[in-house]
Amino acid sequence: MSNHDKIPIDVSIVQRLIAEQFPEWANLEIKPVELIGGLLMKY
Predict the structure, then answer these.
(1) pLDDT per residue over 12-22, tens digit each?
(2) Could you list the residue range(s) of the whole structural domain that residue 12 is in?
(3) CA 18 to CA 23: how far, in whole Å?
């Protein structure tokens, strides 16, 4: 997958997904971590 094909994911998207799928965790802090390679974004 090239850089042009990547889907941008930011904190607001992660917060929404967590709230929808794991409502008991919705109030936890979400912050990005440094990307060190690989195919997955880690939060």
Answers:
(1) 999 999 999 99
(2) 1-32
(3) 7
